[in-house]
Amino acid sequence: MKKISDFLFANRDESYRTFSLPLIPNVDPAFIIGVRSPIIKKKAKEFSRDPQSREFMSELPHQYLEEYSLHRQLIEHLKNYDEMIRELDKLLPYINNWANCDGFSNPIILKNKSSFLIKIKEWAASSDTYSKRFAISMLMRYFLDDDFKKEYLLLAISCDRENDYYLQMMVAWYLATAFAKHYQITFDVFKKTPLSTFTHNKTIQKACESFRVSESQKNELRTLKIK
Of 32, 134, 136, 181, which one is least surrounded by beta carbons within 10 A? Predict the structure, then answer.
């Protein structure tokens, strides 16, 4: 949609673009316009009330990272759960980087957690890196507190894939956060369940960097590092 691309280029920040490029090295630099997140967030809130927002969301694939960012945030403003799921299913196959994948939230998920968990399992079973990464990020956001279960650890671990850096990093991030919140259950599963060497050691590193993991727990985790 031309009015969206015009808006994004009108708000281009070259210094921010320069800062962003090395953070997302797996995409073509031409894919990144360089628009700061608060500007996109404000635009999404305004544009979500415009009927043309549905037209914009139907125009896949997009050309720029910021268009995908806006698209994802428009989905965050949807009030109908089934529509949100349909739009996520349309968008996820086009996601090709962590910045467009991570950070999703929508309050209606809290009222539909059982159904959402079914979708998480579907995305986790996908062969697509970023559908899997999205699934783990949603497990971390919505199922790592009161609703936590051991089976969710196993679901995240099942997504680990050798030499798939952006998936391995998300698995490690999830497990390190699980250590901080549910140490003993996570430790017992982690100790017994094989992971790729990179993910295994990265999980330990991330957990040891957390102030929410005690020193004695960190020392215990360090004994599991693969040399």
Answer: 181
- Picking from 143, 132, 218, 134, the residue whose alpha carbon sits closest to that of residue 178 is 143
Residues 6+ apart with CB under 8 A from 18: 34
Secondary element (H or E) of residue 41: helix 37-47
Tell me how far apart the alpha carbons of residues 203 and 214 are, in angstroms, rounded to a whole number. 15
CA–CA gap between residue 165 and residue 171 (Å, rounded): 10
- pLDDT band for position 1 (cuts 50, 70, 90): confident
Residues 121 and 224 in one domain: yes
Q: Which domain holds residue 124?
A: 112-227
Q: Identify whether residues 89 and 132 lie together within a single domain.
A: no
Which CATH number characterizes residue 212's domain?
A: 1.25.40
pTM equals 0.95
